[in-house]
Write a structure and sequence with these properties.
The protein is of the alpha+beta class. The chain has 2 domains: 91 residues, DNA polymerase, domain 1; 120 residues, 3-Layer(aba) Sandwich (Cytidine Deaminase, domain 2). Helix content is 44%, strand content 15%. It has 8 helices and 5 strands. It has a 5-stranded mixed sheet with strand order 2-1-3-4-5, sandwiched between helices. The longest helix has 20 residues. The protein is elongated and about 70 Å long. The N and C termini lie far apart (65 Å).
Length: 223
């Protein structure tokens, strides 16, 4: 059945306008985002199939490539779904009142929701002023953290541009285990040394796992 064949009062957009967003089912909300269906399926049917097969949590954990491999999901729909997921993460972060970093857990609380479902390592630099207030952040790299990625200029150029006097390094482990690898240890020590050379204090390096974290300051390693 095409959307046009559904009585007007039963269509997602019309129900939204008449009753508000709260009355819509998960499938109807998906239908509004996706807009169009697939061969032999209207957009509500597609939405119901996606939810039945993957569930809301697993669907939003898919990569762009994985989403495009699902029947009825092309590049545009895949990007729409990931954009919706990202907005949800950013809204959750925006609600967090933390503007000043006082400990490793503050950093973990800021980044856990954003990074917990990522399937690749994201290496981020959080920039602070003298009072440990957050100035800015910079995504430095995506992918396994190794010596080919590390570049002091890449890390400290935005730090100096924003006149940050302190930084915190953050990256995630998709495995969920935040224990540092040998590469993590080697590169972190290099960054600490580079920070001393340019007059920027590296406060900590937080590795985000699944519900837990690992902090360099709380577990100092020098090798």
């Amino acid at each position: 059945m095409r959307i046009k064949d559904i009585p007007k009062e039963g269509r997602p957009r019309e129900r939204f306008l008449r009753y508000g967003v709260g009355v819509l089912s998960d499938a109807e909300l998906f239908a509004i985002i996706l807009r169009t269906g697939y061969k032999g399926e209207n957009v509500i049917d597609v939405s119901n199939r996606l939810i039945a097969e993957y569930g809301l949590d697993k669907l939003f954990e898919c990569s762009l490539k994985e989403l495009q491999g699902i029947k009825g999901i092309g590049p545009a729909k895949a990007m729409q779904l990931l954009a919706m997921s990202e907005l949800g993460k950013r809204q959750a972060q925006a609600k967090k009142p933390i503007k000043k970093i006082t400990c490793a857990k503050d950093v973990f609380d800021l980044f856990h929701d954003r990074l917990k479902d990522e399937k690749q390592e994201h290496f981020i630099v959080l920039m602070l002023n003298n009072m440990n207030n957050i100035i800015a952040e910079q995504l430095v790299s995506i992918g396994t953290m190794d010596s080919t990625i590390f570049d002091a200029k890449t890390i400290f150029k935005p730090v100096l541009k924003n006149s940050a006097s302190k930084i915190v390094l953050i990256h995630n482990h998709p495995s969920g285990n935040p224990e540092p690898s040998r590469e993590d240890i080697e590169i972190t020590n290099e960054i600490f040394k580079a920070g001393e050379m340019v007059g920027v204090r590296v406060l900590d390096h937080i590795i985000v796992g699944n519900g837990i974290y690992w902090s360099w300051r709380e577990n100092p390693i020098r090798q």
